[in-house]
Design brief:
With 147 residues, this protein is of the alpha/beta class. 41% of the residues lie in helices and 16% in strands. Strand 1 (5-10), helix 1 and strand 2 form a beta-alpha-beta unit.
Length: 147
């Protein structure tokens, strides 16, 4: 087995069809590609939440305290992560959901040893909750997880 590691950053907008409605067809297509490539690669997936809420946009429109708006955006990434994990499970694609926020009912807390173990077991590692800190985008999270 190859030890090539690939980190994908998936925008929350990948969940939307041309009519801006929730749609899982693109996620299923990505899952099918990952399943095909999983035998020779190890994958991490950083999930965005912009299809549900963007702290810097909707938060401002709603007049929210900026840090609270960003936390809502982080929660949106968790919602998408749960959806992705469920789709992966339905396609017999072995994965594990991690979260930078403490949500033990739905995801494991970010822990390097657990991440390394999941990758060793050839599970797709799904990262949610952003960095766990307001004012940082999921792009920053992708950089942190890649490192």
């Amino acid at each position: 087995m190859n030890d090539t590691r690939i980190l994908l950053k998936l925008t929350g907008e990948a969940f939307l069809n041309k009519e801006n409605k929730l749609d899982n067809s693109l996620i299923k297509a990505i899952a099918a590609q990952l399943k095909e490539l999983q035998h020779s690669n190890k994958f991490g997936l950083v999930v965005g939440g912009g299809n549900f809420f963007r702290g810097s946009i909707q938060g401002k429109k709603l007049g929210l305290i900026p840090s609270n708006a960003h936390y809502i955006g982080m929660l949106a990434t968790i919602m998408n992560g749960i959806i992705i994990k469920n789709i992966f499970d339905s396609m017999q694609l072995n994965s594990v959901l991690f979260c930078a926020l403490n949500c033990p009912e739905v995801a494991d807390q970010i822990n390097q040893d657990k991440i390394d173990q999941a990758l060793q077991e050839n599970k797709i590692v799904i990262f949610t909750g952003g960095t766990g800190n307001p004012f940082f985008s999921t792009d920053t999270n992708a950089l942190l997880r890649a490192l």
